[in-house]
Structures
1.
Amino acid sequence: MTQNDKRFDRIKAAILICIGIIFISPLFLMIVSSLKDDRLQIMEDIGSIKAFWVSNPTLNNFVEILNPSSLQNFGMYFRNSVIILALTAIGTIVISSMAGYTLLRGRMKMHKILLPVIISLYIIPLEAIMLPLLYQSIKMGLIDTFVIQILPFIASPMYIFLFYQFMKQVPHSIGEAAFIEGASFWRVYKDIYLPINTSAIATVAILQGMDSWNQYFWPLLVTQSDRVRPISVAIASFSQVGTIYWDRLMAASVLMMLPVLIFFLIFQRFFIASIASSAVKG
């Protein structure tokens, strides 16, 4: 390696470090601010280097927002979001993988037409069908329930197509051998196609889990009580009062960020493997 190459590598490393600092600094600022117990001090420190430092860190903000007797019980909102995330991710994996497998191995005459139709549905944004969906939800009596925050999202065209593409890469002879041995249609799906496609399952779990956790507008429309309200909607209530408690707001934001981060770290190995596998096979 020449001297110029080494110099160029150092320049690239410095640029990447600067970019990393730019992206990480807001998260670091949020975490530091959540450990400060004085909202006025947070406002004074903004705009200076002091904003990124806390001399006396405390967890009082987290204790206050998670206290069941507090005005804003974020422990309940957090629980609601976890329930919605878990059920949405599980439902999406089950429904989408079944649909993808049926499209691939099912004996449907309309197979070549049905798949493009399902893919084309992905270009329709949720906002375009939100009002008809809301009207239907009211008529069905599903407003202010967990069901209405989960049901519309468990059959995603994108994830059906994703499972279809991953399952298509499984050698056809494996499934045929199982059928010859007497395995049923769904036995082959459960015991062969699902275990082989763990990377696809992890990818869908991460993407759908993050999307479900960050949902705001739809839960805002369909929830009326704190009993089923997710944390994403509850955080917005901080800005609806005359005085914004920035210390508690930052603590609530950290609380909202951590589960998604942990969720990603758990499944990142499979997520990266699925991307690498798609790149190689593509």
Note: The chain has two domains: 1-58, 62-281.
2.
Amino acid sequence: MKRFLAHLLPALCALVLAAAPCRAAPGAACGPDVLGVSRVITINAGQRLALGLQSYPRTLDLHDHEVVLTFDDGPAAPTVRVLDALARECVRATFFLIGRNAEALPDLVTREIAEGHGVGHHSYSHPGGTLRSMTEAAARADIERGIAAVERAGYGAAVAGPHTPFFRFPGFADTPALLGWLAGRGVTVFGSDLWASDWRQMTPETELALVMSRLERLRKGIILFHDSKASTASMLPAFLRQLKAGGYRVVHVTPGAGPTPVAGAPPGWTSTTEPIIARTLGDATTSGAAPRRR
């Protein structure tokens, strides 16, 4: 029953969201002064989408001052403080989980689901050389194992299709074959529109200033954080306060029947992640080449 209610709560919350912001955490009501969630966008798997302008020539068609919050690489010890900060502001996010971390900390996976967050997928092992450096068969196996691990941790059993069919490539290092395979399985791929660069060592204050400067330049977008980073957990309460003070609104994404609102890239777009991947991997297929257009 507990797992059933955890799965049912996000859907009920979405139904009443149009009337008022809805707190994801059970047993508590949102006051008028919290940031909350302004609207929900459903992601239609049938559109075979890969989203986020840092890697792909399309993204969600967000309004000015709208953001989607995403977190990678959890669950981990700092995830508790991340969830606490989101709960205080009645905000929902999407977490892209590493399978082996979900196996190690299943209680955090079930908490994320119970509090209305999206639980997507980020491979089983987050290989250091990325999925791109593996054979296609090995990469598929790592992705499938990761999805199964998250499903077991969050819902008690692996099923044919994940509850939240969202995937983010470790290091953004996709391949055309893997993109096509995931699309065929009904899995939407998420990149990002801006990131906090929280894989670098920095103070929470520096991270906050960096991500806000990027957001103020773009004015909207899918934001990438890592809930595995203590600096991000420490920074998040101040970030959410600044979002509210700056008139920003949080959009939550869930799987559903579309159509999904999508915006194309501006003229002259190129991937900003491809040159980074080339430098990191030294991949002969990308190294020294122009950024890959998609």
Note: Confidence is low (pLDDT under 50) at residues 1-28, 283-294.
3.
Amino acid sequence: MTYQHFPKVELHTHLEGSAPPDFIRSLAREKNIDLSRIFNDDGGYIFRDFAHFLKVYEAACEPLQTPQDFYRLTKAVLEEFASHGVVYAETFVSPDFCGGGDVVKWRDYLAAMEQAADEMSGTITLKAIATIIRHAGPEQAKRTARCAVETQNGFLTGFGLAGAEMMHRPGDFAYSFDMAREAGMHLTAHAGEWGGPDMVQETLDLLKVERVGHGVNAVTDPDLVARLAEEGITLEVCPGSNIVLRAIDRWEDHPIQTLREAGVPVTVSTDDPPFFHTTMTAEYDSLARVFGYGDDDFRALNETAIAAAFCDDATKKAVRARLEKA
């Protein structure tokens, strides 16, 4: 049995990291950019470890140079997501890759992505989260925050933090998160994928986020797990990503079920699906195989996700209507 056509909600994806390899290769050829080094013989992305993954990711972004490129990228990604039953998705997008943090340029890129999303809205709903690239540093983060607060709308609804988790501490980005919070934006941040529970704790205390990206290492601290459950902090868990990057050794060792049983709100996402050889279908099928999840479990995961989604109540109502078909 496969869950390909089961309606799904996905909260943790990176737009550039979701680019089909064929799309990036084609775009690179159009622009005479040689990216052969980032692909294996089968045409997929190739990397050694997390540090190398970040370099390959940034290389794959090189052909993405104009708003039109991001329009085409968004359409290609949404078509792929929809083919796996995703009816609502949120994606991280960075002004760093879209105009270098210049607000005027960023507006054009954002408008192109929103246009593509609007054209696909009959099949799948997309919202965007403007995202700091952590390893670019706190000063660049402030430019990202300015881009976010000056362009937030019904499409760009959230603000986040991604990148190399072990570079800088959460508090280094507090100014940027304060800007976004005061502007009324929803907040999330990657933490606890490579860092320990202390990184999650500091992210909650200093950035005051509503959701945590990954967060799986929180499981080693019972008090933190209890706090996540009590405060209703949703974890955007990406099991396939964790395993491919060796943050967790095996599917059988993944703490997603332990966290669920402890009352922590947990969702399932793909992160950067073509990089990690996954899809939402593969994530659901693996959860069914390893943990015995069935339709009721997936309905519960979807309800947790849409409840935590960074969209308005009218959008949530419309998405729930699509989910009821499962």
Note: The two ends are 15 Å apart (CA to CA).
4.
Amino acid sequence: MNRKLADTIVLDFTVHLPTTGAVSDADALPTVEVFEDETDTSLSGATVTKRVGKTGNYRVAVVATTGNGFEVGKSYNVVVTVVAGTVTAKAVIGSFFIDSKRLADLNDLAAGSAMTLTPAYDAAKVAAPESGGNVAAIKTKTDNLPSDPASNTQVNTRLATSGYAAPDNSGISAIKTKTDNLPADPAVEGNIQAHVADALAAYDPPTKAELEAAVSPLALEAGIEAHVLAVLNSYDPPTRAEATADKTAILAAVTALNDITVGEFLSGDLSDNLSFPANSLADLVRKLFWVVCNRLVITDASGAFTAYKTDGVTPAAAGTITDNGATTARSKPTWP
């Protein structure tokens, strides 16, 4: 059984004659020893008393105090020594454990009895609830919440009109009209080759007679017409054979673009730091790459834009986007 420190534990035992087993008083008052766990030295605080008017009935009272050597968390055995009919006998009449708490402590409480806990708890339970500090900070936040947060009307009424900027839907539509004309894969050199080949295949240089015939019906003033005719007279267009030879050479150069890898494109013949003849095929392809693939900064208010070279720092081209879907012509980029 579990008992609490400072309890008095009372145990009963009876005495019988060893020859007949009949109940009998002991030859002398029995003695008692109390042993703690594996300790063989008996503790003090235990006494034996004969029950009044009862033959062979005795009780042992054990006062389990720290002064008598008892400790919390220890087990104890109570042993009595009896001499009856000149025969000495011993027996363990009881065992108990000293616990820090007992179920009986709860049973001793009457209904409605107050319990005294720690001083800190007693102070906390009578303290006034917090009225400032964290409570005030929380209230400041919750005061900003709508009474019906699930209603979108609450949100709409709290959105400042001055802070709302409608999207430029017309401008977006105009940009889409332009981007719809771009190929699905503008980085593929095959697209460039196909367009150049088609243009060269359809090229048929005009003759001087055809140019003069085109100018004559314009009814220009005599001085202007004479100047134009003088220029035309000095014009010597290439023959079809010459144009075909030039076309073959250009197509061969364009075909060679198919052999350029991405790595060669970025670090080889088309690198930022190399120079090419103005408007040469390599120059135009590299400029196209800069605009399509590199950093592009556009100023919303003015439409001014700057395209940067592969390093992302050096400007490659600058201009202004002025095409708004009407008749206004957009400016051409200015190349450094």
Note: The chain has a mean pLDDT of 76.
